Amino acid sequence: MQTEVVNPHFYPEGQGLLPVHISAMNPIDAPRPPGLPVGYVLNAFPVLSETFVSNEIRAMRAQGHIVTPLALGGFDGPCQPDDECFKPEIVAIGEISHLAAAGLALTSRGLSRAADFAFRQKGIRPRSLMLAGARVAVAARRRGITHLHAHFAHSAAATAIVAARLGGMTSSFIGHGYDVYGAPCDLALKLASADVAFGTCQDMIRDFQGLAPLARLRQINCGIDPARFHRPAEVQRNGRMLAIGRLAEQKGYPVLLAALAALPSDRRPVIDIVGGGDLLASLQEVAATLGVSDCVNFLGPKPSGWIAEHGPAYIGFLAPYCLTSTGDRDTGPLVVKEAMAMELPVVASALMGLKEAITPETGMLVPPANPAALASGLLWLAKLSEQDRRTIGRAGRAHVIANYTIDGQALGLARAIADLQA
Question: For the CA atoms of the chain, what is the radius of gyration?
Answer without folding.
Answer: 22
